[in-house]
Amino acid sequence: MTVLWDPGSCDKCIWDLTDDIRLAVLAIDESKSTLLSISTGVAAQKRLNDVNLTATHLQAAMSKKKNHAELWTIQVDDAADEMNDLLREAATLDEQGNEASSKGLLLQKETMETNNRATQLVQQLSNMRDNIQEISSKMKYYAIQQELSPDEIAQKLSVAEEMLKEIKHRKPFTNQRQLADEEENAAKELLQQVEEFHERYNDTRYLVSDVLEQLSEQDVKLSDLEEALDQALDYVIQTEDINKENRANLQRREKQHEKIKEQIDEVNSILLSATTALAGPQKVNSELSEVIKNVSGFYAEIDGAKKELQEKLANLSLFDDDLVEKAMHHAHNLRRLADELDWNLYGVDTNGLVQRAINASNVYENIASYIEEANKAALLALNTTNRVNDAAVGIDTQIIYHKGKSEELLNRATELQRTADYSNDLTIADTSRHVNGTLARMNALRSQLMRAITKMQSAEPVEARERLEQAKLKTAEAVSATMTVTQATTPMDENVRLWSQNLQEFQHKSAAYDSAVHSAGDAVKKLTEVFPQLLDKLRRVEQKAPANNISSSIQRIRELIAQTRSVASKVQVSMMFGGQSAVEVNPKINVEELKSFTSMSLYIKLQKDNPQLAASPDRFILYLGNKNAKNYIGLAIKNDNLVYIYNLGGQDVEIPLDAKPVSTWPSYFSIIKIERIGRHGKMFLTVPSLSSTAEEKFIKKGEVLGPGSLLNLEPENTVFYVGGVPPDFKLPPSLNLPGFIGCLELATLNDDVISLYNFKHVYNIDTTTSPPCARNKLAFTQSRAVSYFFDGSGYALARNIERRGRFSQVTRFDIEVRTPTDNGLILLMINGSMFFSLEMHNGFLYLRYDFGFSTGPVLLEDSMKKAQINDAKFHEISIIYHNSKKMILVVDRRHIKSVDNERTAMPFTDIYIGGAPAEILHSSISSHLAGSIGFKGCMKGFQFQKKDFNLLEEPGTLGISYGCPEDSLMSRKAYFNGESFIASSQKVSLFTEFEGGFNFRTLQPNGLLFYYSEGSDVLSISMDRGAVVLNASGTKIQSSDRNYDDGKTHFIITSVTPERYELTVDDKKQSKKNPAKDRAGESLDSIKKFYFGGSPLRTQQANFTGCISNAYFTRLDREVEVEDFQQYSEKVQTSLYGCPVESPPVALLHKKGKNSSKAKGNRNKKVGRDKDKISQPSTGLKNLYQEVNMQRDPQCHLPMNPKATEHAYQFGGTANSRQEFDHIPKDFSERAQFSISLKTHSSHGMIFYVSDQKETNFMALFVAHGRLIFMFNAGHQKIRIKSQEKYNDGLWHNVIFIRGKNIGRLIIDGLRVLEEPFGSNANTWQVTEPLYIGGVAPGKAVKNIQINSVYSFSGCLSNLQLNGRSITSASQTFSVTPCFEGPSEAGTYFSSEGGYVVLDESFSLGLKFEVVFEIRPRSSSGILLHGHSVNGEYLNMHMRNGQVTVKLNNGIRDFSTSVTLKQSLCDGRWHRIAVIRDANVVQLDVDSEVNHVVGPLNPKAIDHREPVFIGGVPESLLTSSLTTRNSFIGCIRNFMIDEKPVSFSKAALVSGAVSINTCPAA
Fold this sequence. Notes:
- 34% of the residues lie in helices and 29% in strands.
- The chain is extended.
- Strands 15, 16, 17, 18, 19, 20, 21, 22, 23, 24, 25, 26 and 27 form a 13-stranded antiparallel beta sheet that branches. Strands 57, 58, 59, 60, 61, 62, 63, 64, 65, 66, 67, 68 and 69 form a 13-stranded antiparallel beta sheet that branches. Strands 41, 43, 48, 49, 50, 52, 53 and 55 form an 8-stranded antiparallel beta sheet that branches.
């Protein structure tokens, strides 16, 4: 049903009416002011005409609004009639359903009766059969007993047969037979009718769900319409009231208008005085005429003088040049002599005679100067005369005009005076009184208008006000929580700054440490007290009614908390432990990272003069493990030895450091490092020297003898105690010792910096009575004083850098960096839209800046790969800006590259180092950055204009620390992309005695993990269909499980002995016997090469895709230690930092939450947030590895790929934009779980769809009216789950939708869970490929989904995962491109992934045509246009190295023409291309360059209708003569054929990565 009436338009008419009334009031105000201040009749007449015209317009507008109101009333009545018709139809349908149901019951009853009669008949036949069998048996019996002869038997049989015939022909039996036949026929007919009715009944039942769904939708629409009608009725009533008031006001104003007309007549009598006023201007006119005449005379005299001067100048020019020069020289000499004479005679000129003589001698010079001044005065007088003349002409024109108008007004006034004789008794006072009355009525009208507006505003629904108040309260609560965090973190930030100052100024005094630690304790204590309250408030806010920005605000607060924790973890101050104190540390590392490899370092100092320590020297130091005392690592002092203890689920391993007894340790800090890789453990002790940089180092090793190799910690049950434990915690027996006495300071845990001040709880620690110990600077600041460590989350900010140096002709920045990472921000300066950024991209420097240049940003990058930065070595980087126009990049004092720009000074004052706040990285400059990743590594020696900066002393610095931990610079991880590998050559022999292991993580079922060969013998570890396979010289061992391609971390240990080969995956061991081979002749000292992640050699396995980390193996020349991949000699396409393998989605809510919905329908409720909550997608993992493909054609200004969101794709532009996937998991029919991230501004569109061939079984996720709808079938029932909020806000949202055995769930942003149960006895649910993403093929989904949502989704989708596995490789793609960031413009973009557009049949290239379009390429080569006919004729237009070529074959031979522009075609600007063909003549225009060719004439040429390809063409249609075969990359717009615009959105086919109607801006 279509409703034409829109209640929103009624609001518009009211506001239009209000605006008209306001304009009328303004007009009345202007009329009043004009009447009171009138001095001439022209303005008065104009204002009165405006008043009259406004009144007329107001009356017309009132009548128009009245007509609109009547029309809306009619439309509302029509809508009500249509609604009544719909209700009647629904009632009729209900009656028909009841009638069909009654007929079905009657038919069922008759069927049951027939069935009973048939049962009785069967029973009778069965009895008859039994009787016959009995007779037969008796016959046999009597035949045996009586021994009848054959003749007698035959006689008896014949008699029996006659008896049977007689029985058969008796009437009762024939009648029964006829009745049985009739019953059988009737039963068959009845059965056929029942089957037909059953089919109709099933069809009707199938329709019932659709009808019920439509009725529910209609019910919702009716309720909305009812509310709208009620609101409209209120508006209509209000409008009628206002119209009545306005009608009365209009009548009063008409009366006022009549009175004003009468007053006009009186006012016009004043115009008679204008005639006297005109006499003055006429007199002025005559005087001006005389002035003009005088000026003309002066001008003539000046003109004459000018002529004389020109003649004199002409005469002077006739003199000889030498004479003039001599005269000038003589004049100079005379002037010099005159000056000397003046100076000599000045003192003796008592009577002034000499001075007068000098003045007389200068008379000629004065005359010359007077002539020059006269000439200037003449020119000035000439200009003044011209201006006076122009002014006089203008004044004369104005006087003539005013004179005419005045005469006209005088005539009109005379006529009006003649008609107004009867009202001469009215005076000016009466007129003033009437005007005051008009003003009073105007004020009354204004007050009425304000009352009407107030009444309209008060007519808002009460519920809306209540919702608004609730929203305000929730917002206030969120703001309060944010302020609480700010109040807690601000003092902490200040205290951290004070700690830094105290530490730097420390002069072996405990007061500085006392103050620093006391403030640290207070701040962290306050933060610890605030955190639980804050989290409770956050949970309460989350559980309130939904608001779209609440989850983002909570996420921002959590980021602030994490940032504060990060700052606390970098406090490098010790704590004093007295034997009864303890600290529970909050380690920020993931326990999964500690499974196979654990490394920890700390500083320790014993309080040897403490009597408790002397009485009981055995002391507990630390414990990291589960609460149940299984799987842990610990440190203690036993029997005067430092003991490292770890347990991997079996027996304890104790490693005592007996080489350096504790009693011999010095009375200052020493450093301890404990390490474990697999089952191997190691402990280091470093004792420094106070007098030099010399150090003593001790080491002790151990290993687990049992099968365990993994430290299995549970996140919820993991604790980290230092110095002691709380009273209620039970330590394992090996660590159950008294608490530590002395000072401890934590340093690192694996790669992360940790601190005791990032704690969860503290026990019995008072920094006032037990201050921390001072750490000797000489021993531990040699490598810390000048280096700063950045962990990727912090940054340094130097404000007002010109306080140390000035921007000058040569501006210079210097810094040294050391890092193993691929990407990171080094320097950043911002001023509005101007910026300067130095980044590391894929291991090389990337400099981009814009100081307000007219040509846009300038790029300077190490495109020649001269200096690799990410090799974990220090590199000195210098940026030199010379003469404000040349930027120079220098690395390690070697020139890398330079570039020139417009002469512009650097417009900056502040500089960010190593990172920047998130709000800056995600601001408008983000499109110019190669990535938004903070720097991780070490920096030192930052200088501006050769002036040093101490970054930790800068007030804006956040989250960095002193020092450069070596562990953080190791590359223990490597990421392989399927074409990469790393290799090293070392002394190894893997076929004699060998043990090795490593972590791996992947989503691919196949790949080569490790490869090693000795001659023909090969040892390899690979994945085969999800299983791990060890191949050792032909002996294969395969893991029992096949699910290791699940995206989780797994640990492999391989062992080779002369007796056995062993493979252990996650502590699950498989082994086989080692065949005996003679290896006595092999050299054990030879250097061998081995590979991780693949091999350049030809192997049966493809290279690995995923991550390998924490690798180790036994070697001949060194101890067991973790491999540093940075030291490997060969690294091919490998990233040595981070692991971008996506984790599978969390299996959410396997158990029902407490608040989950149990009712059917739309009463979905929010499930409480508990342990089963979904984790938000980790931005940290994305930041660790953000691949921004910035490939660039060297001939092009723009990069080949615009900046885009990683792993995100943009859909839309065409109705069937989509990706198709052919692989559907086998368990999809039992449990279908799909997760995706999306952002859109569109209100409708398909996101996901899969079905069987008949589309009886289906599952879909789509957008309708901005809301997300998850829909699928359960048998004949359609399950529909709909979100209450709208998500078309242009922000990223994470969605998971699940179809289980008896329930469906829709989970949005991890905060909103909607679910709907259904019957579990439904038929088997099966679907077939393909699986559609972003849209469907033409004709699909129309059967199940409303048409508006069948069209393609318009927006971006990313992170596609199906049943826990990422789906990335689409079998087919139609109009899908990467999700670009930054501004866009009109046009069609052809991405580097390849694609093309096929125009519809209405456009064709024949023997005569004209094609015009514009391009902005990002690559210098590519196909622009192609047409191909079946007989081999073709037309091809392409670019090759910036040259545009058109090549044809008309059936005779090939011919072509080309155009090459003087400037680059790939300069980032739009270029116009035109191709004109007339039979065998082809002309090509590129901008202003033109070329043409005349080919052979084909008399048999036929005008074919052939498909036209734009931007590319399938390989099969290209002939061998066409050398350019790659697709066009860039934008095309304004495409026209024969002056007709071509719309790509209506194309016959859009294949590949093509974005219709949207093009990334340059």
